[in-house]
Amino acid sequence: MNKDEQDTDRMDMGCLEAIEALYAYLDGELKDPKSIEDFEHHMSHCRSCYSRADIENLLTDRLRTASGSHASERLKKRLRNLIDEF
Amino acid sequence: MTGQEAIRSWFGRRVKENMDALYGVALRLTGSGADAEDLVAESVTKAWSSIETLDDRSRFRPWVFRILRNCFISGYRKQSIRPTESAYYEGGCQDEGDVVSLLNEQPDEFLCWWANPEREFFNNVLGETIISAIAGLPEAFRVTVLLVNVEGLTYDEAAEALGVPAGTVRSRMKRGRTMLQKALWLQAQDAGLINPNGGNGFVQ
Q: Has residue B204 got a pLDDT over 70?
């Protein structure tokens, strides 16, 4: 059976199942190869879910950039002093 | 170097490596830079005094984040007026993987937009808008999204840090991210940046 025939025969997971798996997939938590393959197959032909996944990735990048914080020099010094006293 | 000194040296290095992450999560929990610094200092002190409970050194991150959150719960949250998770949301947490109920809770206009959100809007979302949206999430969802999406913990590590099953982390990620997008959608609507009847698709 060639790849096209395999794709035709494959049962599509549907949008609800894809949304169920979306965050686990994007967060690298979808481990089962069959689940990954089914999810990616759905994404390859569903514009709506592909668009959702695209936006989720963008939002994660924005969230990471906006929420990243740096400890002040004051806090660093305070923690160094604390640990020196342990 | 004695054994105790070696442990202290290792502990100091691990604290230094995670200082920004600890401060970042503390800041989003307390909402104040000064309170966040106090919370981190208290957590580091607590962590050192219970270092013998760290059985596996490779689990330092979830272990220290758990101590941070416990310190927050036992101290700072008591003084706080910030909203915490409601019974409604706690019920949702136990409802693992129920996407249908998650979708049923959302208004139709949001679901239409959610299925086909406008990329241009997200391209222009400002940092303050996201910070404001994340600050409005119930605490359980806020800290889960931060630990996973910002600090890069795995679901297992986040579960360990939060003292909940990994399935609850998975469920909170779905709900937390949906709530975050809904908050952005509402803010964008209020600012007239998107069409309230927008969206040209729907989940099949």
A: no
Smallest CA–CA separation between B131 and chain A, in Å?
Answer: 7
* CB spacing of A48 vs B150 below 8 angstroms: no
Residue type for position B162: L
**CATH class of this structure's domain B3-79:** mainly alpha
- B122-155 per-position pLDDT tens digit: 877 778 888 889 999 999 999 999 999 999 999 9
Q: How many of the other CB atoms lie within 10 Å of CB of B202?
A: 14
Of A47, A68, A78, the CB nearest to B41: A78
Q: Which listed CATH number (3.40.50.150, 1.10.150.130, 1.10.10.10, 1.20.140.10) goes with B87-190?
A: 1.10.10.10
Q: A54-58, B19-23, B146-150: which range is least confident on average?
A: A54-58
CA end-to-end distance (rounded Å), chain B: 64
- CB-based contact, A7 to chain B, within 8 Å: no
ipTM comes to: 0.81
Q: Is the pLDDT of residue B73 over 50?
A: yes
Cβ atoms within 10 A of the Cβ of A21, count?
Answer: 21
Cβ separation A64–B149 shorter than 8 A: yes
Q: Is B99's CB within 8 Å of A16's CB? A: yes
- Which of B196, B96, B77 shows the shortest CA–CA distance to B142? B77
**A26 near B CB under 8 A:** no
